[in-house]
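for the writeup, i need someone to sanity check this before i put it in the appendix. the sequnce is what the collaborator sent (i think, or maybe the updated version? ugh). structure was predicted straight from it, no edits. if anything looks off just tell me and ill rerun, i have time this weekend
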Amino acid sequence: MPRSEFADPHDQQLNEKIKDLISFDGSNVNSFEADLIGQIIWSSLRLLKEKHETAQIKLMTRAFKEMRYAYHIFNQHPYSRRISIFGSARTPENHPDYLAAKEFGAEMAKKGWVCITGAADGIMKAGLEGAQKESSFGLSIRLPFESPTSSFMAGDPKLITFRYFFTRKLMFLSHSDAVAAFPGGVGTQDELFEVLTLMQTGKANIIPLVLIQGTGTYWNEWLHYFQVNLLDQGWVSPEDLHLFYLAPSYQDALAHISKFYSRYHSSRYVKDLLVIRMLTPLNEEQIKMLNEKFGKILLKSGDIYATPPLKEETDHLEMYRIAFEHNHMHFGSLRHMIDEINNF
């Protein structure tokens, strides 16, 4: 990867001082990570040069500190799989949705998953209570009108409190291998549509997104709204229906998430080449079927093919792979293709 020499190659004096600062801290000044830190230092100094408003500098400083601390906490607890659980903070503890979320969290923990919630009451408390502290992360937000943190997570080092919603949502999505949504209010819908938007546009990894029905008709009515006001109007594509799954029960949601990772493991881009890593291989006939069915996600000159690990890859080298030149479009169809890979 090309080095930036920070951001202004003509200001060698400043670049050397930044290098001296990085070296003074005991870090390897020639590493790529040091180059990235140099860019952060350079950008920070530009805030003064460009005379940004104090409030703007405060916001960027606080957001950066929140992200650094949150990543530090997550890095101290590396787990194989994590799931974010969204839902109302106002769901009573005797409500069927609360009990379902508690059971769901417990079953996910038994499967070795860690549950991440907003650490408040209602569905969030239920998910953590089911998973228990050792399998829980809490991402709290400071709010003046609701209890910011459930007592269940009090004192736990895996409880992180945020000032900003956008930094909090970044941590939810960048650490989640699945998302489960229970009925909730504006906050739940905000989180749900954030996940859908990022997956639909390719700004987040494709992961299972399950809408757990519980009692009533909440998600059926939501789906009706989605179909009538979004799909029928042409504001979304039919393939976008593959980006989420309406689960009639928490047991069905568990089965759906397990099926998603039954063969599929993960994916990454190497430039325009999308590499899909799998626990078991596909045969030639299956790959041919994928080419025939999902040509719309390929560049015109490309095909899906089996491949050994690419030289740019450094992780999961033992796994089977397919690769293709992705056109960076039709992510709902890409999600559908992962289902087909698991169904073979």
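The longest strand covers residues 264-270. The chain has three domains: 12-51, 75-260, 264-343.
thx in advance!!
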